[in-house]
Design a protein that fits this description.
The chain has 116 residues and is mainly alpha-helical. The protein has helices spanning 2-29, 36-74, 76-115.
Length: 116
Amino acid sequence: MQRLQDSYHKRLDSQVERLVDNFHSILKCAKIGSDDASNSRDSFQIQAHSENIILAGEALLKMVFEIKQALVLGDFAQMNKECSDQEAQNTEASQRIERAILDVQKQIGETLESLE
């Protein structure tokens, strides 16, 4: 489990760093008062960095999905334990109720015999 968490941490750090680097590159490309050739090149670079930001965001969303899926699938052991505990409690309560019903039946039988 620890290796999986370390893997997610590394991937998370990598993708966030990728987002920040590309955003920083976009800011560096955004210049006011450049010539047309420079604007075309900067526009292309901004588009490339924007696509890299989108890819990093999609990778982060995929990682969130994987984490949620691992949490749900890995939590079945806990859910099974809770179900078993609840079943044991219900069985115990059922046995107590059955004993109480038998006691009441016995008392009713004794009371009817004493009335006869």
